[in-house]
Amino acid sequence: MIIGRWMFSVCIMVVEAWGNVYFFDTFLGRKKGIFFCRYRFPAYLAMMFAASTAGYWIDMWKLPVYILGYILLGRVCYQAGWIQGIYFSMLNYSMIFLTDLMLVSLMDLWETQEAIWGIWSVPGALFAKACWIVFIFLFRRVWKEGADYGELTDGEWLKLGLMPLFTLSSIVLTFFRCKEQPELRQICVFLSTGLVMVNFLVIWLLREILERGKKIRMGTESARKTEDQLAHYRDMQAVYERQGRKMHDYKNQIRTMQALVKKGDTQAAAALAERLTESISVEMVAVSTNHPVVDAVLNQKFHAARERGMSMTFRVGDMGGLRLNEEETVILLSNLLDNAIHECVKVVRQGRNAVIHVKLVQEGGKLIFSVRNPVVEKVQVTEGTGLSNVKAVADKYGGDFAVSCDAEKFLAVVML
Q1: Distances (CA, A) of 316 to 149, 233, 301, 304, 362
Q2: β-bridge mates for residue 360, sequence order
Q3: For 179-195, how does the pLDDT look when each residue is reduced to its tens digit (9 = 90+)?
Q4: What's the CA gap between 217 and 253, in Å, rounded?
Q5: What are the backbone angles phi and psi of residue 176, rounded to the nearest 5°?
Q6: Share of the chain above pLDDT 90, in %
Q7: Alpha-carbon distance 186 to 174, whole Å?
Q8: What is the pTM assigned to this prediction?
Q9: CA dist., res. 322 & res. 352, Å (int)
Q10: Residue 360: predicted pLDDT
Q11: Mean pLDDT rounded to a whole number for the chain
C-alpha cells in the first residue's frame, strides 16, 4: 500500500510538472539560446519534489516555496519580469488549488470524510491534475499564442497582480473553511471557480487590448512613413522639374560655346564649359515614365541602390494614365523596392554582383509591376507591414499580388 501511494505521488508530481511547463509555455515566450530552457520539465519536477519533501516539516508553508520556485524558473526560462512572473505563478497555483478543492467537493457527494482523505485521495489528486491540464489545453486551443506584454509597466503589473493574489488567498482560506464546514463546500467551489475564471477573462481582455494597441501603432507608423515618403518624393519631383528647366538653359549655353569655338575664342568657350559643368547636378534622372511621382520613386531608389554598390535595370512604359493616387503609388513602388535593396545589401557584402530588375508597364489594360532581385539564401516570406500594405492596394483594385523565393532570387509581382 505504501509503495502504491508513493508511486501515485510520483505520478502526480510528474503530471503537475508537465502541466506547469504547459501553462507557462502558453502565456509566456521562452528565452532563445538558453541551454537550461531545454530542461524545463526536469527543473520543475526537481523543484516540486523538493517542495513536497519540505512539506512534511513545514506543512502548508510549502505553498510560498512552490510559488517562489515557479517565479525563479519562470525568470530563467521565460521572457518575463519579476512581477509578471509572480502574477502567472499565483494564477497557476490558484488553478491547481481549485482543482483539489473541486475534487474534495465532488468526492464528498458520495463518500465519507474519512474516505476523502483515505485511499482515494492520491488517485483522486491525479485526476484533479489531469482536469487542470485539460482546461489549460482547451484554453490554449483558443489562445493560440502568447501576447507581447512589453507595453505594460511594472506598476501596471503590480496592480494586475492583486487579482490572482486575492484569488489564491480566497481559495486557500476556502479550502480550510470547507474542511470545518463541509456543507459550504459547493458554494465555496462555485465562488472559487468564478474568481479563477475572472482572472483568465482579464488575461484574455488584456491580450486583445494589447493587440489592438499594437495594430493602431503599426497603422500610425505606416501612415507616418507613407506621408514622409510622399513629402520626400514631392521634393524630388520639384528637383526634377528644376532640372528640366535647367536643361533648357544648358542647351542655350552649349549653343553659345559652339558659337565661341567657331569664332576662335576657345578661352571664353572653355571658361563657359567649366562653369556649366559645375552647375550640372550630380543627381540626373535615370528613368522617365511621364508620371512625376513614379519618376521620383524610381529615380530615388535607383540612386539609393547605386550608392550601396548595386545596379538597377528598368523596363518601363508610359505611366501618364496611372489610376493610383499618390499615396498608393508610393506604397506599391517603394515597399517592394526597399525590400529588394535590403536583400541586395547582403549579396553585396558577400562580394557578389547584385542587380535589381524592375518592370513597370501597362499591358492589355492592366498595370504590371514586378521586382526581381538576388538573395543570399531563401527568404522566409512573412506578411509584414510593407507587404500587407502592397496587398491592400492590390485588393482595392481587384488585382493580384504574389511573391516567390528560392535560394537564388526573390520575385514579387503585382497586377492591377
Answers
A1: 47, 19, 15, 19, 9
A2: 316, 369
A3: 666 666 677 777 777 87
A4: 53
A5: -75, -35
A6: 13
A7: 11
A8: 0.47
A9: 36
A10: 94
A11: 77
Say if CB 29 and CB 84 are below 8 A apart: no
The x, y and z cell numbers of residue 356, run together, are 535589381
Identity of the amino acid at 24: F
Q: Which three cell numbers stand for residue 210?
A: 494589447
Q: Which residue has cell 482595392?
A: 396
